[in-house]
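Objective 1.3, modelling of assemblies. Example input:
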Amino acid sequence: MSDTPLNWGKWGDDDERGTLNYITEEKTLNAARLVKSGKVYPLAIPLEADGPIWPTRHKNWHVATFRNLDEGSGGAEDILMMHTHGSTHVDALCHIFSDGKMYNGHSAKDSINATGARRNAISNIGGIVTRGVLIDVAAHHGVDVIDADHIVTPEEIEAIAEAQGVTIESGDALLFRTGWIKVWDQDKVKFDAKQPGPSLAAAQWAGQKEVAIMAADNSAVEAFPLPEGMVIHHEFLRNQGGYLMELLNLEALASDKVYEFQFVVAPLNIKKGLGSPITPLAIC
Amino acid sequence: MSDTPLNWGKWGDDDERGTLNYITEEKTLNAARLVKSGKVYPLAIPLEADGPIWPTRHKNWHVATFRNLDEGSGGAEDILMMHTHGSTHVDALCHIFSDGKMYNGHSAKDSINATGARRNAISNIGGIVTRGVLIDVAAHHGVDVIDADHIVTPEEIEAIAEAQGVTIESGDALLFRTGWIKVWDQDKVKFDAKQPGPSLAAAQWAGQKEVAIMAADNSAVEAFPLPEGMVIHHEFLRNQGGYLMELLNLEALASDKVYEFQFVVAPLNIKKGLGSPITPLAIC
Amino acid sequence: MSDTPLNWGKWGDDDERGTLNYITEEKTLNAARLVKSGKVYPLAIPLEADGPIWPTRHKNWHVATFRNLDEGSGGAEDILMMHTHGSTHVDALCHIFSDGKMYNGHSAKDSINATGARRNAISNIGGIVTRGVLIDVAAHHGVDVIDADHIVTPEEIEAIAEAQGVTIESGDALLFRTGWIKVWDQDKVKFDAKQPGPSLAAAQWAGQKEVAIMAADNSAVEAFPLPEGMVIHHEFLRNQGGYLMELLNLEALASDKVYEFQFVVAPLNIKKGLGSPITPLAIC
Amino acid sequence: MSDTPLNWGKWGDDDERGTLNYITEEKTLNAARLVKSGKVYPLAIPLEADGPIWPTRHKNWHVATFRNLDEGSGGAEDILMMHTHGSTHVDALCHIFSDGKMYNGHSAKDSINATGARRNAISNIGGIVTRGVLIDVAAHHGVDVIDADHIVTPEEIEAIAEAQGVTIESGDALLFRTGWIKVWDQDKVKFDAKQPGPSLAAAQWAGQKEVAIMAADNSAVEAFPLPEGMVIHHEFLRNQGGYLMELLNLEALASDKVYEFQFVVAPLNIKKGLGSPITPLAIC
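Predicted structure (tokens):
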């Protein structure tokens, strides 16, 4: 595991935005030009108690309240209790650290307490509008769902991109489709036991390519079991200041063979937040 | 108050999406073409316990948990407990009803219980990508914050649009800036006591113009006190199937005089949800 | 199912306390005199996410926060999110109703909304100090756990009481031990599928005996499946104004053959509450 | 501030119950004999959003859900979200520590994480049944509410006890009435700004007297502002393993001049919990 953080200091010692610095106004402008038909793909799974969730977390809790259902002037609303990482979500850069240091060397101990994170918090994101690229691993191998022990290498990513006719550029969001999200409905124990995902080398390669975002239709972008720990989180999020998005549903994009698109993510503006549930959008 | 629901049945008796039907793929495509510089404006206020909230609701509750802050491999995450209507948010079409009927005549009693709404739920939205138009009421009157008893009429909206050089089109999102959001930091009691907003006539006019979304930088889009009840909610949301977005921060847009833009809203995909916190984005 | 509510009006049309009226100061005084050794038995199961809970409810959620674990002046505390009926608990008299009427004829519709119950709320209880009587059904049949389809009849209760050398008196709390709580650790699916409990006739008999409280070591006091609905809730709670306590652990009491004791229950003083988690105490 | 923990090791190096060891079966038996009339005083304030709470904590959140209010078979229940220290409550012995050590030298760092406390948790309590003694400071000074800057000394406690005709014994619960709880309804800002309470010397004296519990009708038993920190928490809870109970309502006891009684506290059996809301009972 690399312990030379690639991007620390690259955008100044105070930087808390990491690879979002790659997404310049020019990058955002070019992303808008990828819209050719006006079709919008929402990429979130249903946010519900029974959805997939990292096993140590509590299930999402949703309660509705209402008045005057059948006469007069009535209303209804709801309450949500959830881990911000409890359904489709983006990790803030304060989510993972090691040896006491978060992305860019910010001290975890000085930054984080029960009220949240003073540094590298989710509220630094604002809104993300960049080019998204689907890397359809499952389709490339001619299957609906890739095997649980499949580890995606840099060479494989490049081969898939080439086959799909896309190139990876600075500031891109890479969306890895393994098909694994479909396992949840079939076998929840299998879903949580083992998952396919990119290799550590893929995260390092992403750093060289200046990829801004790695997203996947699995629980943690990571392949697991994790013999060496959360290598993607360590290398991409902590060392590079890259953004991880998890538990996406990429089936409709894959079915329509949409490989590049305007990619929009608008996390909740949680003060001192460590992540946010999201509905990423692909617009093509 | 009009009791002839303008759009009921217009898109079929089963329709649950209302004015989103105005946002065709062509409309979305044209909205993308409004991006000229690549600048992104996130329009959410901070989601925190101390932010503005409808007085009968509980404050947002946010707790962080963490491990290994100073050695080894560490991590941190957070839990959120909130009314979906507790910060910047969008109302689902099931939020308001009268005489037992929601938008399109769906029965409130048959649709809503403590687990949520079977009909007109937030999950029908998916993602919204359309043309956004800022209606800067405060600037038009040469003030930072418009008076609490100012009611915005259709004539005034048209005058502002003309002065700003924009026209209102089918499927647009209208964002009303009153400046009222700034009162919160100065005087919380004043903020909640009385607020400016559009008139019932403005909601009716919006229906004629096929406006899809009415948003504002106040608590409920509505002007209040509400001598005749929530007239905008009744007319625009219930009768027209229109979407209301509340507690936006429009200051940066106004400061830069950005009057039309690609407007993107991606609500959380809450199963049977009655609203969602959001970070609306204006991209220009 | 009896529809002649036994105790409605018995303590006045405004009464909201039901069978607690049987627990006079004299009854409480006599209960204190049952203490002979000073031994205290707490009767609550562990309140945790993984404990038994009615399947439609969300699991208990518990989060700890802390500061300065290793130096200086430190502190830790916790947050609890739970159904009040989510572990060992007592039902308020507003919990169950039929034909629009709660205990004593109070209107459910006029009393209950999302903020709680104006009538028959948990806060009417205060504290309960009375005579408790263990009815050890399992031991009477020479088993650790009684069969799932065992229905306890009035005759059986009287036989058990006689064998145990106790008589049932006005204002008593009857604690039914089926042993079922032990099934949870062995087989959670079995635990929820079917449970033993008292019959409707037993609830009617309890009314004649002026029993104040029916408690059990199962999920709902009720035997289920419930071909005729929640007959005990309907007859004992709604019709008689009796108190139901559920998910108790009676193993230590049974092991020590403690059949009568000072029984103390102190529900949380939740304003407009519909139930409360409790730790009932048996003191002998 | 004393740094020689009085009771560490006294009941063995593994002990996690502290002063509850003073409450022997004989003590509990004698406490039952204090019941002379059968009158029960519940000592909890209403558990509600608008009640007094330590200012950094979130308000209690309570939501009711219901079905079939007006026909058929109906039911209602509720959900509670709260700090366990958010209304009338007892502190677990893991609540406060310093220099990394909790009561009896247990390591805070090794014991506490986001899931709770492995050592000194609330679930060690079970149920408390002992002699309670009211120390009515306000009445002793002939006032309804004692001054905010009044610090109760050991000499004053002894003088009050003598005037009330009671002596302090090993294992007793001392309930200090300052009257301060009444300030909440009159002036919430005043309530939180400054409070009367016992001195550090009083906590040391309580240690010598083998007092098991110190309770009060203020926010933290402590007088504050706290120039030397939470001295009572440090000395009584951490050093002596004593139990603190806060935000009690002692008005009815004082009004009836009930100075000794059977005192019963049954905390929720929260696994790894750091405190519990309670309804303490005084039975006389």
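Chain B touches chain C at residues 63-65, 79, 81 (CB under 8 Å).
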